[in-house]
């Protein structure tokens, strides 16, 4: 699996040169084309004169071209728009059809706030993209690379495992797969019904390990390290990323039967640690 068309939505109200450099280096490493989108957050375009808006757009475009002039990647296009930020990002996604949307950590709250809005639901089915949220202050990935995949055992998880393993192999990164059992509510039910919560938890863990082993057997290339943990997923994954210092955490989204694994549930907590997060949709 590889990404060929990258869209970086950059907020020029914050220092963005390092974020742009990171995205450009990633595009170069992936041999992909990069589009840069900047949105001037104008709630009411009528409140700004055409001359003022033109100068704002011109200034933004000049900045983007200057920052990227010496970067080793192919720039597909520069795009500067004015209006509501997430609306303009969605318009660009619909028009450009990228494989990967890149945002900085400083924009993550805006993304999460609109993650499940009706605006997103209006996107055509062909608009399918993953989201990479880069830490604005981290250095670019350096060898040896290590990635972590937080995996659900919902059927969609097997597809995500194959995609993540292929992506890691392509970038010559070692992959660790983690599945977390969050048994609080179900364990309480087991206590009430059977008074055997520990036995229930061990049984769940054993089934999860067998499921993961079966999925691993169908992978091509080097097999990832994997483990099944029990507890609060956000806390355990954040702790793992701090201790391992892996370059990238890969999570899923929109697994309807595993609501606690959706990006909207855990992503805000996961972004509190320093590092990059790839949301595979």
From TrEMBL:
Classification via InterPro entries? Rossmann-like_a/b/a_fold, UspA
- UspA domain location: 3-133, 153-272
Q: Which Gene3D superfamilies match?
A: HUPs (3.40.50.620)
Q: What are the boundaries of the signal sequence? A: none
SUPFAM superfamilies to which the protein is assigned, alphabetical: Adenine nucleotide alpha hydrolases-like
Would you identify the family this protein belongs to, as annotated? Belongs to the universal stress protein A family.
- What this protein is called in its record is Universal stress protein
Q: Which organism is it from?
A: Pseudaeromonas sharmana
Q: What is the lineage of its organism?
A: Bacteria, Pseudomonadati, Pseudomonadota, Gammaproteobacteria, Aeromonadales
């Amino acid at each position: 699996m590889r990404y060929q068309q990258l869209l970086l939505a950059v907020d020029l109200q914050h220092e963005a040169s390092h974020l742009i450099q990171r995205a450009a280096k990633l595009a170069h490493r992936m041999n992909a084309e990069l589009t840069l989108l900047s949105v001037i957050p104008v709630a009411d375009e009528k409140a700004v004169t055409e001359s003022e808006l033109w100068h704002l757009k011109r200034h933004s475009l000049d900045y983007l071209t200057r920052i990227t002039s010496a970067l080793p990647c192919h720039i597909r296009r520069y795009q500067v728009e004015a209006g509501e930020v997430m609306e303009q990002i969605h318009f660009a996604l619909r028009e450009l059809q990228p494989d990967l949307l890149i945002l900085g950590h400083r924009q993550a709250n805006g993304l999460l706030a609109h993650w499940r809005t009706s605006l997103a639901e209006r996107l055509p089915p062909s608009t399918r993209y993953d989201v990479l949220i880069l830490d604005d202050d981290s250095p670019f990935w350096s060898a040896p690379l290590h990635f972590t995949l937080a995996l659900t055992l919902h059927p969609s998880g097997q597809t995500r495992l194959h995609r993540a393993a292929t992506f890691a192999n392509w970038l010559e990164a070692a992959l660790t797969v983690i599945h977390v059992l969050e048994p609080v509510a179900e364990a309480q039910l087991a206590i009430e019904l059977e008074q055997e919560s520990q036995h229930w938890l061990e049984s769940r863990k054993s089934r999860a390990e067998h499921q993961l082993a079966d999925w691993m057997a169908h992978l091509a290339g080097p097999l990832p390290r994997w483990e099944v943990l029990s507890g609060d997923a956000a806390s355990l994954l954040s702790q793992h990323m701090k201790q391992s210092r892996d370059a990238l955490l890969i999570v899923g989204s929109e697994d309807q039967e595993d609501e606690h694994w959706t990006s909207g549930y855990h992503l805000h907590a996961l972004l509190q640690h320093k590092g990059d997060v790839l949301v595979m949709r």
